[in-house]
């Protein structure tokens, strides 16, 4: 079979697959351990992929990503308050983990050590464990999962440093308050340091209270932001995320990206563009409100165990030592890989399965304590 015939067969098969009915997202009792709520892809995303395949968009794209997607994403980030050069300061990555890897390895190659919080997404540790990345730690408050400014100052002192932070926190959904973000920015400037800012859950927090550190005065040239702008439109499994930051960072990052992946899957990028163009602030507000209602109901069942968090897409609860959620049929993400043993993280889904899961957890934990 010639390469042209093979490409045609693959394109037609993909088009046909995209027209099939997708299975419904998570149902009651299903896996609640994912990083993001599961939604079916919106029709505009699927249509954009079909159109891209029909145009023959199966070749390698530019390493940073297809230009129309970077332009649309740059405009969205600018409206969000994060100034970005879409030509030289933005890259579409094959998911959040590739973004973490590119950020940590690129900074290490430039002579920076990485300062990781004591509680952080395990993917950040995995990314930093590869290559020659020197890692230091900064403690977080065990309840609020927020850093202490004095501890940050000590961690940033010395050799050139890049501070890795999550807001919302990937375990609890905690959003760093503006006052704290401003204080952290001041310490970063004082130490002449950089920041890697994981904003992947930002769309699940109230926009009126969220601030990205790269949007603060003087911080755009010091911040590399990881994230997505398409939460809730069914693209979580498409492995598309972004890196945004100063152009001087991207010369190194582009070379590394080209070595490991050449580019992010081209049809998926066009699908993301279709979703980005179709998504509206009203749609996102409606999705946040839906998840917020489910989360609030779940929290009300066991409020004393819940860690503070503002992102509506997840809820983190403290459980007794040795507590086994699997025996209850609840599949949750354990906190130990994050650095928080004794915590379970539950994903909030559109179907509200988290309510039933929390009811089972609370009942079992209270019964355990009465023994």
What's a concise summary of this model?
The chain has 371 residues and is α/β, with parallel strands linked by helices. Helices cover 40% and strands 12% of the residues.
Provide tags for this entry:
alpha/beta, 371 residues, 11 helices, Aspartate Aminotransferase, domain 2
The percentage of residues in β strands lies in 5-15%
Fraction of helical residues: 40-55%
Number of strands: 10
From the 3D coordinates, which CATH architecture of one domain would you assign? 3-Layer(aba) Sandwich
Sheet/helix structural class: alpha/beta
What is the helix/strand order? HHHEHEHEHEHEEEHHHEEEH
Outline the structure in words.
This protein has 371 residues and is of the alpha/beta class. The chain has a domain at 52-278: Type I PLP-dependent aspartate aminotransferase-like (Major domain) (Aspartate Aminotransferase, domain 2). Helices cover 40% and strands 12% of the residues. The protein is built from 11 helices and 10 strands. The chain has a 7-stranded mixed beta sheet with strand order 1-7-6-5-4-2-3, sandwiched between helices. β4, α7 (178-190) and β5 form a beta-alpha-beta unit. α2 crosses α9. The longest helix has 21 residues, at 281-301. It is globular and about 60 Å long. Mean pLDDT is 87; it is low at 1-29.
């Amino acid at each position: 079979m010639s390469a042209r015939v093979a490409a045609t067969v693959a394109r037609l098969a993909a088009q046909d697959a995209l027209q099939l009915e997708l299975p419904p997202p998570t149902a009651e009792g299903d896996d609640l351990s994912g990083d993001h709520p599961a939604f079916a892809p919106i029709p505009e995303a699927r249509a954009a992929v079909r159109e891209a395949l029909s145009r023959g968009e199966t070749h390698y794209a530019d390493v940073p990503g297809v230009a129309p997607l970077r332009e649309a994403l740059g405009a969205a980030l600018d409206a969000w308050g994060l100034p970005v050069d879409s030509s030289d300061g933005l890259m579409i990555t094959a998911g959040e983990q590739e973004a973490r890897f590119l950020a940590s390895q690129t900074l290490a190659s430039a002579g920076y050590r990485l300062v990781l919080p004591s509680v952080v997404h395990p993917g950040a540790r995995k990314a930093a464990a590869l290559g020659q990345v020197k890692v230091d730690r900064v403690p977080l408050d065990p309840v609020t999962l927020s850093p202490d400014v004095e501890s940050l100052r000590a961690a940033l002192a010395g050799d050139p440093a890049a501070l890795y932070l999550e807001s919302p926190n990937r375990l609890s959904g905690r959003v760093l308050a503006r006052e704290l973000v401003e204080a952290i920015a001041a310490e970063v400037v004082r130490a002449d340091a950089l920041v890697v800012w994981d904003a992947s859950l930002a769309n699940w927090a109230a926009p009126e209270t969220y601030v990205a550190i790269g949007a603060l005065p003087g911080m755009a040239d010091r911040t590399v932001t990881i994230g997505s702008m398409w939460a809730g439109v069914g693209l979580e499994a498409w492995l598309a995320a972004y890196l945004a930051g100063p152009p001087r960072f991207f010369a190194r990052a582009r070379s590394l990206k080209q070595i490991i992946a050449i580019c992010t899957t081209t049809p998926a990028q066009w699908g993301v563009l279709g979703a980005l163009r179709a998504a509206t602030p009203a749609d996102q507000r409606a999705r946040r409100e839906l998840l917020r209602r489910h989360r609030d109901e779940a929290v009300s069942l066991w409020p004393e165990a819940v860690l503070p968090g503002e992102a509506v897409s997840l809820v983190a609860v403290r459980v007794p030592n040795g507590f086994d959620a699997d025996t209850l049929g609840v599949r949750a993400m354990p906190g130990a890989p994050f650095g928080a043993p004794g915590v379970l993280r539950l994903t909030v889904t559109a179907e509200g399965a988290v309510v039933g899961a929390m009811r089972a957890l609370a009942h079992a934990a209270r019964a355990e304590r009465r023994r």
